[in-house]
Amino acid sequence: MNNKLFMAIAIAATLIIGFLAGRGLPPKPDEAATDEGDNEVLYWVAPMDSNFRRDEPGKSPMGMDLVPVYADEAGATPGVVSIDPTVLSNLGVRTAIAERGTLPRLIETVGYIGYDEDTLQHIHTRVDGWIEKLATTATGDPVRKGQLLFELYSPTLVNAQQEYLAALSSSNVGLKNASRDRLAALGLTESDIARLDRERKVSQRVSVFAESDGVVADLGVREGMFVTPATEVMSVAQLDKVWVVAEVFERQSAWVEPGQRAAVELDYLPGTTLRGTVDYVNPELDPKTRTLKVRLRFDNEGAKLLPNMFARVVIEGVPVSNIVHVPREAVIRGGTSSRVVIDIGDGRFESRKVLIGIESGDRVAIRRGLKEGERVVVSAQFLIDSESNIESALERMGAAQ
User: Which of 297, 329, 336, 386 has the fewest CB within 10 Å, making it most exposed?
Assistant: First the structure.
């Protein structure tokens, strides 16, 4: 009884060990071909080294299992990969059709609001002197036409007034006219000279008044300071009109010209779009930012637009017609070339080099490498492109053997 039991246990153990050993062995080439739909296995290759090939399963020099290469894979088109529909669904692959038509040249950039420099009034004195009384004391102060800005004491002006009064007392008409002209050249107004004619009294201080409404854009002095004709005492700018200075990238500089329509949006006025036109294009690039300055002019009713506000600017350039274009996200940009992934049907995809053109909004023009109506991948294209590049590289390496 004990012998029979021992024999039964030994037989069972032998069967189990044989079964387990059989599962651990790699399938034979014929079996692998049957499991893969009767595809013929041409050879076995190392996963990390396509030059290491064997006619039967085994291990690579790195200790990895060799991978079978089937006949249908060896004859595949370089750069084309096949992906199972389930995998495509998991990757979330989306596609779009390459279209042919007109592509607007929309220049999307930023800009800054500034004073209308045509209305900017720079105030200097024509003689040396001291600021005795400063009526406006801070940048941004509003001023009215005819308002007192400051009073100046200048020994030169005092002497010139005395000489004029002396000339008035004489009968020399030429000297009188010369003295009057000298006062006007030194900055005295007609009303100041008329007061001298009337009162015959020298004024120690000369008053300077604003020539127009506006705000103090820059204040360069303080009360009691000594100034010269080279000193910019202050500048006054009007706010009824403003400039929007936009910066256009160098590659888009040929797209913009005066008269083109433009739209401006500001965070200060959400939901409001200002419509205008390009007023002036600077003839040279900024050497630091490598951008082209473009000027827009807007009416500023109620002074809602304030200098140095940030603005988003869209300029409508001349459109390009009859060109193939795709969504911007479909283009894979490399160091020296750009590519798109083409959906050629039946779960097959091809990575193809293209020559891109202008970019406008969310569209990119394709100048070469893509035809109208072809379907491009716009999501998960990086994964498909990397896979196709690997397959193509392996194919080239295999052909070199």
Answer: 336
Which among 349, 350, 353 has a CA at the least distance from the CA of 333?
353
CATH class of 80-102+321-399: mainly beta
- Which overall architecture, per CATH, does domain 106-117+239-318 show? Beta Barrel (2.40)
CA-nearest of 241, 357, 249, 239 to 313 is 249
**105 vs 32, which has greater pLDDT?**
105
CB distance 238 to 119 below 8 Å: yes
Task: Give the C-alpha separation, 330 to 338, whole Å.
Answer: 10
CATH 2.40.30.170-classified regions of the chain: 106-117+239-318
pLDDT digits (tens, 9 = 90+) for 307-323: 899 999 999 888 888 89
Other CB atoms within a 10 A radius of the CB of residue 161 amount to 23
- Non-local CB neighbours of 200 within 8 Å, separated by 6+ positions: 165, 168
| pLDDT one-digit tens code per residue, 81-102 | 777 777 777 778 889 999 999 8
Contacts of 225 (CB under 8 A, 6+ apart): 130, 131
Domain with CATH 2.40.50.100 in the chain: 125-232
- All CATH 2.40.420.20 domain ranges of the chain, comma separated, are 80-102+321-399
